[in-house]
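We emphasize that the prediction below concerns an isolated chain of 262 residues; any contacts that depend on oligomerization or on bound cofactors are therefore not represented. The input was used exactly as deposited, without trimming of termini.
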Amino acid sequence: MMAADFFISFSCEWLKRKRSLSSVLIVIGALFTPAIVFASRLFHRQQLLKLSAAAGFWESLWASSWESMAVFFLPMAAILITALVTQIEFRNNSWKQVLTLPLHPLTIFSSKLAVIVLLVLEFLVLFDLGIYVSGVGPCLLLPGVPLPQSRLPATTFAAGTLRYFLACLPIVAVQYLLSLRFKNFLVSVGVGFMAWVAALAALSSRWVFLIPHSLTILVYLEHDARKRSVPPALDPLWVSGIYAVAFTVIAYWLFLSRRQKG
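Result of the prediction step, given as a token string:
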């Protein structure tokens, strides 16, 4: 029965997301970097000829594309998507109606959270597709430029994307907590942005992982040849799992408090 209720609630939440700007945000944010790479390679044909023949074509493209995504776009997307989806009820003043539905509070809470998580995953998948198109698209459009000679390491890239997705979950959990707690959209977004700034400022510390918004950056820097940060004291993904569970539990407790207060 609860599974059926969850499916119905999730379907409703998925439809309600159309009232927000989350879909527009996903497309613009996910394709911004690939679009820049695509345009740049169209205007640098000679450089592209050398790149397409290089053995590490895909690895180089992947690393350069993910830098801006891991450091900026993914944390910002998690912050904004969570706020936009959660704010639908506040904006329409409909939380009271939602909380009077004959559904278990866990069903309401988890269905909205599931929509947010799925949107973040959609964001990452679209970004990966954008990377692929930015790699082969210019070669197809420019005469005399061959397709990349190296094999696409799809399994490796999928595993890497999964790591970034897991590292992003604590940001979603924290922002979900904030968005449930504060009616003002700017409060949750502002706190998230300040946490991200604090993470950047603390990258030189081994304890930067204590800031949830730093974890996607730390995952990227794990394989950073330039060593721009001190290795964290704990594995970012272990910390990610702990934070995601802890902040989700706290967020649910806040949600129950809201329901009890009416």
